[in-house]
Amino acid sequence: MARRLLQGNEAVLLGALRAGATYYAGYPISPSTEILMRASVHAADHPEFRFLQAEDEIASANAIIGASLAGAKSFTATSGPGFSLMQEAIGYAHKVGVPCVFVDVQRVGPATGMPTMPGQGDILQSRYGSSGDYTSLVFYPSSVVECYRYAVEAFNAAEESLSPVVLLTDAFIAHLNEVVDLDAIEVEVKERTLPALASGQTRLFTGVLVYADGEPATADADEYLRQYEEAKARRLTIAERYAFHEYGWNTEAETLLIAYGITRRICQPLASHFALWRPVRIWPVLERELREVAARHRNIVVVEGNDGQYAGVVERVLRRDVARVPLLGGRMSLEAVREGLARLGLLAPEAVGPAGAAR
Amino acid sequence: MGFKDKLKEELFPTIWCPGCGIGLIMTQLSLVMDDLGLDEGNTVLVTGIGCTGRMGGYMHFDAVYTLHGRTLPVAEAIKTVRPELKVIVVSGDGDQASIGGNHLLHTIRRNPDITVLCNNNEIYGLTGGQAGPTTPQGTKTVSSPAGTTTTPVNLQGLVNTSPHAFYAKTTVYHQGALRKAIREAIAWPGFAFVDITSQCIENNGRRIGFPSANEMLMHYKREFRPAPPGSSALESHQLGIVRGTPEERAPAGVAAPSGGSPSRGEAGSGEGEE
Lengths: 359, 274
Description:
The complex is a heterodimer of chains A (359) and B (274). With 359 residues, chain A is α/β, with parallel strands linked by helices. Chain A has helices at residues 8-18, 33-45, 57-70, 80-85, 87-96, 125-128, 144-161, 171-174, 221-239, 262-266, 287-294, 309-318, 334-343, 353-358, and strands spanning 4-7, 21-26, 50-53, 73-78, 100-108, 114-118, 137-139, 164-170, 177-180, 204-206, 245-249, 255-258, 275-279, 281-283, 299-304, 323-326. Chain A starts with a strand and ends with a helix. The chains are: A alpha/beta (359), B alpha/beta (274).
């Protein structure tokens, strides 16, 4: 197929189909709804692809878990409030080891917030949103073509790690239209490894800690640790194969900008002034890569659409202060970035320009 | 093959309290499964949180022990992806009618071909005996010391909001009726709900005046009667089955035929066998 104009949400759906997804369940919520609508249209023409518009996000999340255990590659898409409703099921999928994909198209929260201005406020929710300890794999593309590519990678990582993988986007990328040629993108697709339900075994898939025979191990710390460490090691080992990130721009600059998702695109006009490091794999944090890059720069600034969620993580990893440029209330613009950098004394005030000053 | 082949007897005794009614449901389910040739290659169990949810661990099937209240979306998705399988849900009244109530409402509407066995003991037993969604009004529990003040959920009325649904009412005392209800529910081409009154002696029965589980069973024997033939709805102490009209299902990708609302069927006869 030739080059075509494609929206971020559509690219996510096409990536999921490329990965072999055959089940979608979801509940309408802006700015993710195009994924649900496109999935319903696809299902109408493709009987092998099953679609459920569920009663809520809780049902959607649990339905994709059931579908996955039954043998289908499955996914859902939502936004902040719906993502919050899905957290219990995400914890269940981690505990049981269910491969599936949760797409979170972020908007400004908390709660209903500012529908549907773009935000990046679910960075920590995507890591710590469910109860207990678990190891999340989370990717965040920054273009339409990357929505396609990393949707495929999210399914691959889910299959390899046997865990729910989160694909973060935001209202900005979701509704961005760009010219892409999907056929030019080479992606590998990982096949299923988890035997489907009713393949002759008598397994117990449960959120309760149990021994291999299904008996409860609910007071056995040693068994908990054995299973927890095994799951964690598997996730971390698999994550190494998905260490997507980007380092570039003016790598001689004193100041390193860390920006991800749409924020990296917003900062693009500043490329001659700053170095850039962009994690695509948001979780687990690319700690080694981050330390290597950070050692080359005097100043580190995290520009993000929340009040320092990833900046705090970077500080923990580097054990040094990092500056913050939070882009809040949906005000994700170059002017806002320039203002923030000028406040930090890292960009001359005249570079901010009248558009920024007026806001 | 016998019904005991369906059970992981090596794990017995079960976690359930002496006198619990859940084992009576598991026995009848095993008998029906054996009769119908259901095995680990053609059937999946889906259970919910609560004492009843443990049943999946005691049976020789792949079983999905879901989060609290989430059996139905999981079961429906399994059936959607693998229509050749029998999908049987086993959980309690709290799981289905309270925390899972929204899923019950909407799963009834969608009418997937799944079977729900609801162990209705009218109490939250696992957590120690708090009032539940089907606790009769006025019942003193550990969370309603002056008696519950709310109307119980009308499961029959809820299920029968669909013209296509199957609703059966039985008790664990009436083993023949229970077996018949389970068998017909599994055979029903659509959503089938079996509402099974069952005793929780440890965390409810004793507090409301029953000296033993046997006294609770004798109470069910005295209280419940088969519905008269031709009943289209069951009174509160009647046993029976109320069937809707099976839904005409179009092949995937083909629009369903339009038609008028089918009328509700009649209660079957013979549900009162003991």
